[in-house]
DNA sequence: CTGAAAGCGCTTACAG
DNA sequence: CTGAAAGCGCTTACAG
């Protein structure tokens, strides 16, 4: 309490506080109660260093006591920028999306920012216009781009043009480090390859994803390279392009399992397709894992529900969302490097050594 | 064009328009261009009937031409209410959440409203305070309450206290019709009961959900009542309380399948638990569906991934989200009745007549 | 049916 | 380190 503050009857102040607490206080209430200008309260809110420690503490105490929270719309209007982070995705994997939302929200908690979701159809040719309208109208503070839209350079060009910050999540770095979360899918595929090789598999089938997906190229490329390094070449007929869907997994497995020399193991580049491999194997009456080892990618809820439970590569999706949001919250000037994200193989019951029958 | 408008050189106006188009026009730009006051533009935006048809059309044409979109933060500040709809949930089923978000967003499309998500932990005792902070700080226009938080009357009391609109989604109506989407889970369970009875099953096991869940009581109650109506009484040992989790499905099925007189069919009140039944059955070497018929509830993605594919009750989740959002957008005065939501059984390969072995 | 003034709750730009 | 004035882009309340 400085002596210079104008003294008011204690009863008046108490009444003021009561009023402020009951019905959403404003910056003016705090200013009056603290005996400072609203600009000073504003400085405290925005963590400006240009406030005396004593003043700051008094104002902060009052803010806490009254339970004052600045109105994001008023702040947003003055800043010309909202306190909203957008999440833009066309990924059909629900668990992936929910985990990513959860991770992002963990970062935003307590920051005054909220998450607004924007699923879209990247195959429609006006989806970029849709995203543009979304980010411009809402004056988003930033957007998180989830694969596969994160790989679309036309989308990113638009965001740069309208001047909206973004954090891109993709299998490898495609942009400045401060705007990227690289998920290093390749490492996970390498681990899968080494695991199957170490179990003794030599005739291995691979069901890839659509080659226009970066993740499919990285996972597939990593797997093939890692096997090659250990002296195993995958003949072309053992590599089948799938569509990241259950049905394409069934179809791919049926082709692989009809080969004269049947593979003893199949790596599917996502769990959906791996589930399709189970179906094809069951239809043929193969016993798992004795007659066929299977590895998936995603470690989706499916993995533990299938029987036998599926060995799969896990991506730390929650953390990816968390880091992406944190990147958007950090000040523009402090270029925050993307964190190191590393997938790892979760071993369950779907693999064994070949010829154990 | 009225004669009273002040005439300006065409070149000036063209320049004005160009400026307005390039960098986010404001209500003032439109007013100047249209030769009216900004209040009139405001009336057009807000669909006030107090505007001459001619004036309205001129202003609307200009708005379209310039691509003007009102700033939601400025509108929100003046209205003391944001253009944000919240979605509050503690449901662990990712597909459920993503579908509901999708349905809600379909309603919001083009309305200027956006969806902000708020997962929470209804077991933590301060989650209501968290939701309160969320809705009050953001001045949400309304919130969609998803089961099971939708069943929490303490949460609803808080929302009424702070005066935030909500739409509750629950198995049966718990509130005024204009605030409820009743999903009639009971009907789906009845259909499952009738289906199993019609196949000839007489010794049937039931794995329920936690009894504190309304959905579990409705589904279980409907199933038991429908069977009773057809002359089948479920002995107590054939009814097991599960926890809506995969593991509890495994455990429940193990108990049921260890009964001296094994059930020929099991109804699990969600697909997670049904997947657990598969696992227990596989472990015992039972062939499906010959030795055991299984029905689930949710029609989750799991249903088609399991082998044999699972017959399950489908709830139109997308539509539930769509109607909930539409309910929140419709004017407060026009009490919009909740729509009739009806679940239905999706028959796949997991059931057969008993004793077909 | 239309508009000028004041205000929503904040911040920026400028002074001191 | 602090504050008074003006402004962000809308709407409400009041006149006419």
Automatic annotation (TrEMBL), chains A, B:
Note whether Chaperone occurs among the keywords: no
Which SUPFAM superfamilies is this protein grouped with?
lambda repressor-like DNA-binding domains (SSF47413), Periplasmic binding protein-like I (SSF53822)
Q: Does the keyword Transcription apply?
A: yes
Instruction: List the keywords (alphabetical).
Output: DNA-binding, Transcription, Transcription regulation
Q: Which residues form the HTH lacI-type domain?
A: 25-79
Give the Gene Ontology MF terms in alphabetical order: DNA-binding transcription factor activity; transcription cis-regulatory region binding
Xref: InterPro entries: HTH_LacI, LacI/GalR-like_sensor, Lambda_DNA-bd_dom_sf, Peripla_BP_I
State the protein's name.
LacI family DNA-binding transcriptional regulator
> What species is given as this protein's source?
Tahibacter soli
